[in-house]
Amino acid sequence: MSSRAALLVLFAVLSAVPLQTVRAQTSSASAARACPVTPHVVGHPANGPIGNNDWYANSDRTIWATFWGWDFVRRGPDKPDPKTGYVPGQKVLWYKPSEYLLTVTGRRIDGPAPPLVYDIAIDPRPRGPIQPSGVYFPAAGCWQVDAKAGSSELRFVVLVKDAAS
């Protein structure tokens, strides 16, 4: 092969690498834009904690959740939780009807992943309407979170990013 032909082959190979990187970044950005993230509500729970936190709430304002000021949810990079194996996620503060236990479930809606883990072991004491918790997401992506206490229900969608993002 002539040196000119070798140079053309090298140029073609090197030109393709940045294009693949741009495509990967574009598809990641497109996935983030496609995630129907639920907007935060204005205000805070009546008789609940007051602060500058961004809250999610159901329409009748009986269940509230805050990820303590984050505009997205991040997973990692801490060591995996020995109980679940998941990389630690977010502390979430819930405000709910006092007389009911809160159940929280979640699933990734833009790809396969195990379900999220809701854990109150960090502070299991009854607190009436306030319930601190940990929510562990096993993968980055677009996640739907469902919370229920009695007949009250809250559903919201968050974008979970890797710690390196």
Write the SSE topology.
Blueprint: H1 3-34, E1 55-57, E2 64-66, E3 73-75, E4 90-95, E5 103-108, E6 117-119, E7 130-136, E8 141-149, E9 152-162
Parallel strand pairs: 3-9
Antiparallel strand pairs: 1-2, 2-4, 4-7, 5-8, 6-7, 8-9
Please supply descriptive tags for the structure shown above.
Immunoglobulin-like; 2 domains; 5-stranded antiparallel sheet; 4-stranded mixed sheet; globular
Describe this structure in words.
The longest helix is centred in the N-terminal third of the chain and has 32 residues, at 3-34. Helices cover 19% and strands 31% of the residues. With 165 residues, the chain is of the alpha+beta class. The protein starts with a helix and ends with a strand. It has a five-stranded antiparallel β-sheet with strand order 1-2-4-7-6, with no helix packed on it. Strands 3-9-8-5 form a four-stranded mixed β-sheet, with no helix packed on it. It has two domains: 1-34; 55-162, Immunoglobulin-like (Sandwich).
